[in-house]
Amino acid sequence: QVKLVESGGGSVQSGGSLRLSCAASGYTYFIYCMAWFRQAPGKEREGVASINIEGSTDYADFVKGRFTISQDNAKKTLYLQMNSLKPEDTAMYYCASADFCSGSLRAADFGDWGQGTQVTVSS
Known about the structure:
Blueprint: E1 2-7, E2 10-13, E3 18-26, E4 33-39, E5 46-52, E6 57-59, E7 67-72, E8 77-82, E9 91-98, E10 112-113, E11 117-122
């Protein structure tokens, strides 16, 4: 089993930046793809960005040009640099892992999840 622990969330004003981290431990050998998802109150969980072990990335249209996903394979850590944050980015952000990347950012493709870290953007 893979354990994922997110950190770095917080409260910022519109236009600000945050960097989320996700530390992976356990049976990380089989991880091929990692991703960030988010879920706002009353809304479904949606994919934000994914990255595979070779470094190929996919982004949701609503974060392209603002968010950057990256990873440090040696540290087994996933990152999400979020710039130009908007109030609509307010959500719980989750890290997830899978043994493949479909490129479609579907939550159903990911089997292991972290507990989430809250991001709140005020106007």
